[in-house]
Amino acid sequence: MGKEKLIEKTLLLLALSAIGSLLLITIFIFLEGLPIILATGIKAFILGTHWAPTKGHFGIFAMIVSSIYVTLGALITGVPLGLACAIILAEFSPPALTRILKPTIELLAGIPSVVYGFLGVVLLVPLIRKFLGGPGLSLLAGALILGIMILPTVISISIDAISAVPIIYREGSIALGATEWQTVRRVVLPAARSGIITAVILGMGRAVGETMAVIMVAGNALKVPTSILDPVRTLTSNIALELGYAAGRHREALFATGIVLFIIIMILNTLATVITRRE
Amino acid sequence: MRPHISSKDYCRVRSRWLVLIFTLSLALIIGCRSQTDQRHTLTIAGSTSVQPFAEKLAEIYMQEHPDLLINVQGGGSSAGILAVEQGAADIGTSSRDLTPEEKHLNDIAIAWDGIAIIVHPSCPLENLSLEKLRQIFTGQIQNWRQLGLEPHGIHAITREEGSGTRNAFEELVMGQAEITPAALVQDSNGSVREIVANDPYALGYISVGLVNDRVKALAIDGVKPSSINIKEKRYKLIRRFYFVTRDTPSRTAKNFIDYVLSRKGQLLLEVEGLVSVH
After folding, report:
1. How far B159 CA lies from chain A's nearest CA (Å)?
2. Among all residues of chain B, which has the CA nearest to that of A216?
3. Which of B77, B78, B84, B154 best tests the A interface by mutation, with the highest count of A CBs <10 A?
4. Nearest Cα to B192, choosing from B200, B180, B184?
5. How far is B258 from chain A (nearest CA, A)?
6. Which residues sit opposite B113 in a β-bridge?
7. What 3-state DSSP class applies to A51?
8. By CA distance, what is B179's nearest residue in A?
9. Of A60-74, A207-221, A234-248, which range is least confident?
10. Residue-averaged pLDDT of chain A
11. What is the pLDDT of residues A131-164, one digit of tens each?
């Protein structure tokens, strides 16, 4: 009994320490970044397009827009591909093949992002420059690389969601005379919906937070993009790019960028939790 | 028949392993510590433009002083100066002058550097006026046609806000004007050079010491960024590289700085592509 209590207490302590560090990080980011937001004005900070932190201009609108575009682009390329892959692996491929392919796909998540970025710079960027024009380092390159990077998240969570649909549903549908594809489309996918949405939202979280690969392929210009071939800078790129040199108000402004990023990711995660809990 | 292992035995085996691993790692940590204790260390941090030269100097100097270990780190001029201020580094390297708030530190000029405007080797352009260069970076000139070449957009590349090289470029070229937000931004001399080397329509600026044959440095107002032109200040885009220390640098740091300023050190910097301060 004594031992059990001890283990229980230890586990509780560990859990609390995780929450504690999250809390500390939050407090720290807000303490560091909030003054500059208040001094600039929330509206000017979020909707301003002029970013020249060493000259006293703090507007991150172009980066917010870029982050959203790059993330949407990643979802447009990654989600249909990932979902199709998940459906095939979970429903149509022989189980032996799935047993090999699923861990392989999950392995993709373990490749460091700098490798994706490097591949992007070496292979993708010259292709875009040659066939589509522009500098190659672009919104499009960022979206495509991120689309590939979110695949493992989308695929493995979707497979779990699809596999969790009770076999009875499928049997019932087949018994009513539906084909296998009709069963998947009309019965299995709707039943797995909440899991699939979670997969998409977690993929989206990864896309928003990814930094290294995006810095390498997206060009980091400060303009609001008007075409998918324009270079863009995301919120995360902005922090990583300038942190090494930032001091004083410039540093505070980067923390303030962090606050905006933090809030966006909090919203995404809350959404994921709410959706999965409701259904 | 397989021997039966009770969970208790298993735990005992496990904990024995843990003790072993723990002891080993402890030994490793202590071992490493005693090894570094035998060598003096000197930490140099700062400008990414100065970094490759400081690394070269450190490498040669360490060959002559085997008991010394020199750590050379990047991070940027401001970070290097901050590191010296806080005592995290013995010597900070900077590619910009000290600001008035930083004036309580010592700055020792170690070399002259030029800022080279680079394009792809296939680009027919050889010369650019300072005025045209400014217009490219303010966004007034966006097409190679405006420079008398085949029409195509110019892919201007700049460094990130706060970089010493960008700082010098802004002072020397831009004056009061701001760099266009449409310019691509890269965070090191190396990546600017890499992009220019691969993109026939790109134009960027890097330290002269880092120009190699994969890119072409333009003449500015008819003056090539050669070492003689930099030394005699005919080339306009020049700046100094500094070592920054606190009032009383350590003996080791002092010796290293003396070495860098000596004939031998300066010669080494010239070989690497910079220009001596003497």
Report:
1. 10
2. B186
3. B78
4. B184
5. 28
6. B239
7. strand
8. A52
9. A234-248
10. 91
11. 998 899 999 999 999 999 999 999 999 999 999 9
The pTM score is 0.80
> Could B153 and A231 be called an inter-chain contact, meaning their C-beta atoms sit closer than 8 Å?
no
Strand-pair partners of B92: B45, B244
Q: Looking at the DSSP assignment, which residues form a beta bridge with residue B223?
A: B220
B9 or A9, higher pLDDT: A9
Taking the mean position of all CA atoms in its chain, how far away is CA B110?
Answer: 14
Would the CB atoms of B160 and A220 count as touching at under 8 Å? yes
Q: If interface means Cβ-Cβ distance under 8 Å, which residues of chain B face chain A?
A: 74-79, 82, 153, 155, 160-163, 178, 180-187, 194-195, 198-199, 201-202
Residue-wise pLDDT tens digits, B128-173: 999 999 999 999 999 999 999 999 999 999 999 878 889 889 999 9
Q: Does the distance separating the beta carbons of B162 and A52 come in below 8 Å?
A: no
The 10s digit of each residue's pLDDT in A162-217 is 999 999 999 999 999 999 899 999 999 999 998 999 899 989 989 998 999 999 99
Ramachandran angles phi, psi of B154, nearest 5°? -85, 130
| Gap between the Cα atoms of B108 and B68, Å rounded | 22
Which residues in chain A are contacts of B201 at CB distance < 8 A?
135
Give the confidence band of B3 by pLDDT, cuts at 50, 70, 90.
very low
What's the burial of B174, exposed, middle or buried (CB within 10 Å: 0-12/13-18/19+)? middle
Structure letter (DSSP) for residue A132: T
Percent of chain B at pLDDT above 90?
53
What one-letter code names the amino acid at A122? V
Nearest CA in chain A to B176: A55
A223 touches chain B (CB under 8 A): yes
Instruction: Report the 3 state secondary structure along chain B.
Output: CCCCCCHHHHHHHHHHHHHHHHHHHHHHHHHHHHHHHHCEEEEEEECCCCHHHHHHHHHHHHHHCCCEEEEEEEECHHHHHHHHHCCCCCEEEECCCCCHHHCCCEEEEEEEEEEEEEECCCCCCCEECHHHHHHHHHCCCCEHHHHCCCCCECEEEEECCCCHHHHHHHHHHHCCCCCCCCCEEECCHHHHHHHHHHCCCEEEEEEHHHCCCCCEECEECCECCCHHHHHCCCCCCEEEEEEEECCCCCHHHHHHHHHHHCHHHHHHHHHCCCEECC
Residues in chain A: 279
